[in-house]
Amino acid sequence: MRRKIVAGNWKMNKNLSETTVLLEDLKKQEFKDEAVEVIVTPPFTNLSLAVTTLKDSKINVAAQNMHQNANGAFTGEISADMLKNTGVETVILGHSERRAYFGENDALLAEKVDTALKNNMEIIFCFGEELEDRKGGKHFEVVESQLKNGIFHVNDENWKHIVLAYEPVWAIGTGETASPEQAQEMHAFIRKTIKETFGENTAASVSILYGGSVKPANASEIFAKPDVDGGLIGGAALDAGNFSAIANSF
Ligand code: 13P
Hints:
Layout: E1 4-9, H1 16-28, E2 36-41, H2 47-53, E3 59-63, H3 80-85, E4 90-93, H4 96-101, H5 106-118, E5 122-127, H6 131-135, H7 139-150, E6 162-166, H8 180-198, H9 200-205, E7 208-211, H10 216-223, E8 230-233, H11 240-247
Parallel strand pairs: 1-2, 1-8, 2-3, 3-4, 4-5, 5-6, 6-7, 7-8
Helix pairs in contact: 1-11, 5-7, 10-11
The protein binds 1,3-dihydroxyacetonephosphate.
The site of 1,3-dihydroxyacetonephosphate (13P) has 14 residues, from β8.
């Protein structure tokens, strides 16, 4: 059985005081399905607080990014060891905002993937096409290339530590979600692409999340699709009630 996961990507939102309030709110929520893994990703400054506050809850804490080097003169950056020593075992890599605004390309992401795996971390690896790609009928090609150049260098064993998140850029923060059919079509394509390189078992066991304007109102029809194993949630994850409603949408 594939893992069902709902992860909240807080992005650059919530200061320490606001994080305290949101975490307390999250702790009060009822997450009905034990089998659904719930993850939150506060900014770096609030990870330690999140780990401590959520220690006895079912909610796990992940980071939004990480540097590829172990340590050294990389002003402003955060290493795998720093995350792990804070109690964070999972990291989001390759978010489209990192790709678009911080120049993260496939080669750099491949390095970050290696660093995360070397440190026994779990990875939520993001990718997805832009609007022009889809309009030009290039969305499958773009996604295949992001996967092949960013993460397909790993070995069969590594896949146990990898979750994929398909996030079409045109659906992020726009209110325009991919239709459940569009999500399913792409997730099936991703699974087929994994199968061609890594075989049936790996393809069948990798969780593939959908991200892009997921809300309580549309989550259940997206999660009902056979190749969609959950969601990576942006805006709606900043409200505990909305986030738990999404996690309860399977
Ligand atoms: P929204 O849910 O705000 O569209 O953001 C999605 C996202 O980028 C999650 O990583």
